[in-house]
Amino acid sequence: MIIANIYYCAFNNKNVCYTNRIKRKLENFSDEDYLVLIGDPSAIGIVCAAAAAKNNGRFKLLKWDRREKLYVPIQIDLFYKGESDDY
């Protein structure tokens, strides 16, 4: 399991992107890992893109369910070629 605290804003005051820092944190990302997405939407997008790039378009995340008060696992496969109603 990778615990990468990427809570820092994805961009600094000069809009210089911290994508290299995020990529380093996720360099060992695999099918065994989950993302918990909170914070800056631009950072979330970069984290998802970096995780997918490291793992052949696949990543898993944990989505908070307010009603049930628990995390629900979600699997994303950007290159999935099945029928549209398979998911």
Characterization of the model:
This protein is an alpha+beta fold. It has a domain at 19-77. It is 24% helix and 21% strand. The relative contact order is 0.17.
Reported for the largest beta sheet, the result is:
3 strands, mixed
**How much strand content do the residues show?**
15-25%
Mean pLDDT: 81
What's the β-strand tally? 3
Number of helices: 2
Strand order of the largest sheet: 1-2-3
Low-confidence stretches: 6-10
**What structural class do helix, strand and pairing data support?**
alpha+beta
Topology overview:
Elements: H1 19-25, E1 34-35, H2 41-54, E2 58-65, E3 70-77
Summarize, please.
This protein has a domain at 19-77. It is built from two helices and three strands; from the N terminus they run H-E-H-E-E.
Features:
alpha+beta; single chain; three-stranded mixed β-sheet; globular; 87 residues
